[in-house]
Amino acid sequence: MPSSEPLHDPPCTCTALRRAARAATAAYDAALQPAALRVTQFAILRILERGGPLPVSRLAEAAALDRSTMGRNLDPLERRGLVRLAPDPGDGRARIVLLTEAGRALLAQALPHWRAAQARIDARLAPGALAALGAAFAPDPAAP
User: Fold this and answer.
1) Which residues contact 28 (CB under 8 A, 6 or more apart)?
2) Given a cut of 90, is residue 121 above it in pLDDT?
3) Per-residue CA distances from 128 to 22, 119, 124 (Å)
């Protein structure tokens, strides 16, 4: 039988964070539509632009994605000629991901749209809120 006592628990932090993340993702996706990119795809291209060719597993880690999700995100980028996968010379079982010239060009086209979305979202956040959130959930360097 349900309790007749009113609930006094605060709102679920996880639910609030998920809603915020979904809203932010939707805003970035909408802004990047002229470049026909989703924000996760944009992030992958940007990581490759900044870090150079990376093994799939390291790229997944940098993008905060699991490896299978990274694979699903790389497939359309590879089909569009924006990235190229090649054998890793240091490990024949692994593959590295390289940003192509077409990927660089599309990234340059998408960057102003991303910056506009970034400015709109940043304007809605309290100063320091994003840095505090990032610090609160940063990986523990002492963890195994």
Assistant:
1) 39, 42, 114, 117, 121
2) yes
3) 21, 14, 12
Answer whether 56's CB lies under 8 Å from 67's CB: yes
Between CA 48 and CA 127 the distance in angstroms is 29
Contact 48, 103 (CB under 8 A): yes
| Report field, pTM of the whole predicted structure over 0.70 | yes
Of residues 30, 57, 54, the one with CA closest to residue 42:
30
Number of Cβ within a 10 Å radius of residue 70: 21
- CA 104/CA 73 separation, integer angstroms: 17
- Token pair, residue 30, equals 């909408």
